[in-house]
Amino acid sequence: MESRTKVLQLFKTLHRTRQQVFKNDVEALEAARRKINEEFRNNQGETSSEKIEELMKIGLDVEVILRTSVIQGVHTGPDRLLLIPRKDLLLDNVPYRDMPTQKHKP
């Protein structure tokens, strides 16, 4: 029963991530919804705990990739693409240093 709870939790997490990552993109939202539902439906009858753990790992990896690597883009011209990164993807710009600083010992 614990396995079922984890699977349902992953299912919900993937759908929440899908809604955040593809916000305002109806086609991408629908395609991701269909793909998530299809993958879970295809493996609904799986009883092997090893296979379930493997599928859970894949699902968790997909969620991390979606959350950390996907950026929306909008075509604004024939050769132009406007990227729309989410706030959680933006990092502070850290200046490059040719030589790393060494910590001084007291």
TrEMBL record:
<keyword id="KW-0496">Mitochondrion</keyword>
<keyword id="KW-0143">Chaperone</keyword>
<comment type="function">
    <text>Assembly factor required for Rieske Fe-S protein UQCRFS1 incorporation into the cytochrome b-c1 (CIII) complex. Functions as a chaperone, binding to this subunit within the mitochondrial matrix and stabilizing it prior to its translocation and insertion into the late CIII dimeric intermediate within the mitochondrial inner membrane.</text>
</comment>
<keyword id="KW-0175">Coiled coil</keyword>
<feature type="domain" description="Complex 1 LYR protein">
    <location>
        <begin position="6"/>
        <end position="60"/>
    </location>
</feature>
<protein>
    <recommendedName>
        <fullName>Complex III assembly factor LYRM7</fullName>
    </recommendedName>
</protein>
<comment type="similarity">
    <text>Belongs to the complex I LYR family.</text>
</comment>
<comment type="subunit">
    <text>Interacts with UQCRFS1.</text>
</comment>
<dbReference type="InterPro" id="IPR045298">
    <property type="entry name" value="Complex1_LYR_LYRM7"/>
</dbReference>
<dbReference type="GO" id="GO:0034551">
    <property type="term" value="P:mitochondrial respiratory chain complex III assembly"/>
</dbReference>
<dbReference type="GO" id="GO:0005759">
    <property type="term" value="C:mitochondrial matrix"/>
</dbReference>
<dbReference type="InterPro" id="IPR050435">
    <property type="entry name" value="MZM1/LYRM7"/>
</dbReference>
<dbReference type="GO" id="GO:0044183">
    <property type="term" value="F:protein folding chaperone"/>
</dbReference>
<dbReference type="InterPro" id="IPR008011">
    <property type="entry name" value="Complex1_LYR_dom"/>
</dbReference>
<feature type="coiled-coil region">
    <location>
        <begin position="19"/>
        <end position="46"/>
    </location>
</feature>
<dbReference type="Pfam" id="PF05347">
    <property type="entry name" value="Complex1_LYR"/>
</dbReference>
